[in-house]
Structures are given as C-alpha cells and as structure tokens.
Specification:
It is a single chain. Helix 1 packs antiparallel against helix 2 and helix 5 crosses helix 6. With about 240 residues, the protein is α/β, with parallel strands linked by helices. The longest helix has 28 residues. It has 6 helices and 8 strands; from the N terminus they run ααββββββαββααα. Helix content is about 50%, strand content about 25%. It starts with a helix and ends with a helix. The protein is rod-shaped and about 120 Å long. A hairpin with a 5-residue loop joins strand 2 and strand 3. The strands form 2 sheets. A 4-stranded mixed beta sheet has the order 1-6-7-5. A 4-stranded mixed beta sheet has the order 4-3-2-8. The chain folds into 3 domains: about 50 residues; about 110 residues, no CATH class; about 55 residues. This is DUF4811 domain-containing protein. InterPro entries: DUF4811.
C-alpha cells in the first residue's frame, strides 16, 4: 500500500502544482502531497534497509539424528568443508537408520552448524530466525515488498553422544580404505588377542564353563575391534 501512496502523492503533487491556479490552495496541496511523497520514500527506504515495521521471529524444530554410516559398530557424523579455510561446514547425516539417502545442511552464509555432546538421545535442534511483520497494519502498508518471512539465519545444533565420531568426508573415505586394507591383518591379530585373553582368564579360573569362555571371547573380540578402530581413527584425523 505504501507504493500506492507514493504513486498517488507524486501524481497529485504534479497535478496540484500545474493545474491549481489559486496560489493559497496550490501551496497547501503542494505541501501536503510533497510531505506524503517524502514520507513514503523515507518509510520505504527504512523498511528496505532497516526492516521498519518488522520483528525477528525464531522458531525451534527438533528432529532425530542417526548415523550417516552403514557401519552398525560406529556412529558417524560427516561434514564437508566449504572453502579452503574450513570456516564453514556442510554436515551430512540421517534422521533415521532406515533412511536410504543421507541429508545435508545448506552451504549458505546464513546457515550455521554446531556439534555438541549430550548424554541424551542424538538429535538435531534447528533454530530459524525470520523477519515478520509485527502487526497487520504494518503488513498492509509494506507487505507488497514481499519480504515477510525473510530468512535472517538458520542454526543447526547436532547433539551427539560421546561414542559418536565426527569426520570429514575425505577422512571417512580414508578410514574405509584403511579398514579394507587391514581387514585380514586385524582378523588374524584379533584371533590371537582373544586366545591370549581366554588363556589368561583360564589361569585365574581353570574351571570356567564353555559359556564363560564364550562370554570372555566375545568381550575380548569387541575390545580389540574398538581399540583397532580408535587407532585407525587417530590416524585419519591427523589428515585434513
């Protein structure tokens, strides 16, 4: 509506200045429509540059977070650096374990991402801030600018547990190659490690049952695998 007022005051100013012959009336109308014209320009400028008549409104949305990796033994959150300085990252994730294709955040200067550790359920908390008109009257006057719901910023908070691993996409590829390259060696070493753990346990308790031996073997295998994964992760994390 403010644009309509601007056009109307401009036309009325021209007509009153040209076609009204009585000096007093012409000066009065010229002053009125001139002020309307200037006021319209000022408020249009303020709405455009300072979001006059608007307020920042923030909404919060929480969604579940699942590992981006198909490996059930490791919960993984991936990111891709944008630019060479690693000042901005695009995060790759899944909302559910059954999700086939991964999702990712936008590569936008208005989008920020933060990773936090939690003891609760892994989740994504997204806070979106937009410019909205603070009243119907303000929207009536300036809504034609089509800037209602204009995005100010979006912030994603990734809450992950302590056992989660955060890697860049290039580091994840290196980790996968390292796992495949050392698979046979790790399997052989794991077998020896398990045997040694069982032997040590039997020295302490020679009368162990088969169920107890199986339990120790399973725990030893899991421990060796966890240690091996941590060692390989430490290796790939040294690279960019």
């Amino acid at each position: 509506m403010i644009l309509v007022l601007l056009v109307f005051s401009a036309v009325a100013l021209f007509l009153s200045f040209v076609y009204v012959h009585r000096n007093a009336l012409r000066l009065t109308l010229t002053a009125i429509f001139g002020l309307l014209l200037v006021a319209s320009l000022v408020f249009i400028s303020k709405n455009d540059s300072q979001h006059y008549g608007m307020v920042k409104t923030t909404t919060t949305k929480t969604t579940t977070l699942a590992s981006a990796s198909g490996n059930k033994q490791m919960n993984l959150l991936l990111y891709q650096s944008v630019g060479t300085a690693d000042k901005h990252r695009v995060y790759v994730y899944k909302n559910t374990a059954s999700q086939k294709k991964v999702s990712h955040t936008k590569a936008d200067t208005k989008v920020a991402n933060h990773v936090k550790t939690t003891s609760g359920s892994p989740r994504i908390v997204t806070k979106t801030t937009r410019w909205t008109y603070k009243s119907n009257a303000a929207k009536f006057w300036f809504g034609i600018a089509d800037n209602d719901q204009e995005l100010v910023k979006t912030t994603h908070y990734f809450y992950v547990n302590k056992d989660w691993v955060v890697l860049s996409t290039s580091q994840a590829k290196q980790f996968s190659k390292l796992m495949k390259a050392q698979q046979a060696t790790l399997k052989a070493r794991a077998k020896v490690y398990v045997q040694n753990q069982v032997k040590a346990a039997m020295v302490k308790n020679p009368t162990m049952s088969q169920a107890q031996i199986a339990k120790i073997s399973k725990a030893a295998a899991a421990q060796y695998q966890a240690n091996a994964i941590q060692s390989m992760l430490a290796t790939v994390k040294k690279s960019k």
